């Protein structure tokens, strides 16, 4: 049965954290001080912290964004993103023409690529970083263009596998929701972020580049997404700490949760975690 735990209680078991960002160390608008304190203390005790995010931004862009939000120095050792992982997939398609779906703020993903953005009629594939309208976009907004892509047997390259993400008090749709719709329609969606292996290969490479030996028994995934963070941990064979007060905070009363309730919710996604917490904290 899944057990409740704070990070300090788990320190002796794990040397490495693969930590999610949205829903764990930030709520979509601000950073969460207790969560950052937990990461800092984990590192001060000799641990290694790698942020593993499904952000479509490259690692340097996400790092700059977190710095702007006030993330203190010494919080993390490394950052890897879905944007990093999918950039490799895009590169092998170059030179190429793509229908672009996503906001202008995701321009960084395409830097250094010989990519031409076109309409669906001339596109070789779709590149999706999320809805064009970050706050209000929905997967159904793209059904017509996806039908046209399906007729032409085009791939959809998805830069963010998340279905939804926490932004303040709201949940907003991500590229994964559009990719899921396309797959349900019979199309092919290409994904490299969580829960898929490429992003974890990047995280492991950063860990080994630091000179640390990789022992999966000493690695802990921390996240609030059953279909991404927890499923990914299960897929690569590492333990997970599920954060209840993230994207499922509205469904779960995190102030009165118990292990049975959390386990039941995760069972609904056919995944399991070894540990859970309402929020990421160092100690109670």
List the helices and strands and how they pair.
Elements: E1 3-4, H1 7-10, E2 16-19, H2 33-44, E3 48-53, H3 59-69, E4 78-81, H4 82-91, E5 96-101, E6 115-117, E7 125-128, H5 143-151, E8 155-158, E9 164-167, E10 170-173, H6 175-184, E11 188-191, H7 197-209, E12 219-223, H8 226-236, E13 239-243, H9 259-267, E14 275-277
Distance between the termini: 21 Å
CATH superfamily of the largest domain, by name, is HAD superfamily/HAD-like
Find the count of extended strands (DSSP E, 2+ residues). Answer: 14
CATH architecture of the largest domain: 3-Layer(aba) Sandwich
Fill in the CATH topology of the largest domain: Rossmann fold
Question: How would the global form be characterised?
Answer: globular
Query: Structural class of the secondary elements?
Result: alpha/beta
The largest sheet is: 7 strands, parallel
Quote the beta fraction: 15-25%
- As a percent range, the share of helical residues equals 25-40%
Strand order of the largest sheet: 1-14-13-12-2-3-4
Plain-language structure description:
It is a single chain. This protein is α/β, with parallel strands linked by helices and 284 residues long. The chain has two domains: 3-83 and 195-277, Rossmann fold, CATH 3.40.50.1000; 91-191, 3-Layer(aba) Sandwich (Rossmann fold). The protein is built from nine helices and 14 strands. The protein has helices at 7-10, 33-44, 59-69, 82-91, 143-151, 175-184, 197-209, 226-236, 259-267, and strands spanning 3-4, 16-19, 48-53, 78-81, 96-101, 115-117, 125-128, 155-158, 164-167, 170-173, 188-191, 219-223, 239-243, 275-277. It has a seven-stranded parallel β-sheet with strand order 1-14-13-12-2-3-4. Strands 6-5-7-8-11 form a five-stranded parallel β-sheet, with helices on both faces. Helix 5 links the parallel strand 7 and strand 8 (155-158). The longest helix is centred in the last third of the chain and has 13 residues, at 197-209. It is globular, with a radius of gyration of 19 Å. The model has no long low-confidence stretch (mean pLDDT 95).
């Amino acid at each position: 049965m899944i057990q409740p735990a704070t990070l300090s209680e788990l320190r002796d078991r794990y040397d490495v954290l693969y930590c999610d960002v949205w829903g764990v160390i930030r709520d979509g608008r601000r950073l969460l001080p207790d969560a950052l304190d937990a990461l800092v203390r984990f590192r001060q005790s000799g641990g290694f912290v790698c942020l593993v995010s499904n952000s479509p931004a490259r690692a340097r862009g996400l790092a700059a964004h977190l710095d702007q939000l006030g993330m203190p120095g010494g919080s993390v050792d490394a950052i890897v993103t879905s944007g990093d992982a999918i950039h490799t997939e895009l590169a092998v398609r170059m030179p190429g023409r793509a229908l672009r779906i996503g906001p202008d703020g995701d321009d960084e993903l395409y830097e250094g690529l010989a990519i031409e953005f076109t309409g669906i009629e001339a596109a070789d594939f779709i590149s999706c970083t999320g809805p064009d309208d970050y706050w209000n976009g929905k997967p159904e907004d793209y059904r017509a263009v996806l039908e046209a892509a399906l007729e032409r047997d085009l791939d959809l390259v998805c830069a963010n596998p998340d279905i939804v993400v926490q932004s303040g008090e709201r949940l907003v749709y991500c590229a994964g929701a559009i990719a899921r719709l396309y797959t349900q329609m019979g199309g092919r969606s290409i994904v490299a972020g969580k829960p898929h292996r490429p992003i974890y290969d990047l995280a492991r490479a950063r860990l080994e580049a630091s000179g640390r030996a990789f022992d999966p028994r000493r690695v802990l995934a921390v996240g609030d997404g059953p279909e991404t963070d927890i499923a990914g941990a299960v897929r690569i064979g590492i333990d997970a700490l599920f954060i209840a007060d993230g994207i499922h905070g509205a469904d779960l009363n995190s102030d009165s949760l118990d292990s049975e309730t959390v386990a039941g919710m995760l069972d609904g996604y056919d995944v399991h975690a070894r540990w859970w917490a309402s929020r990421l904290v160092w100690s109670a």
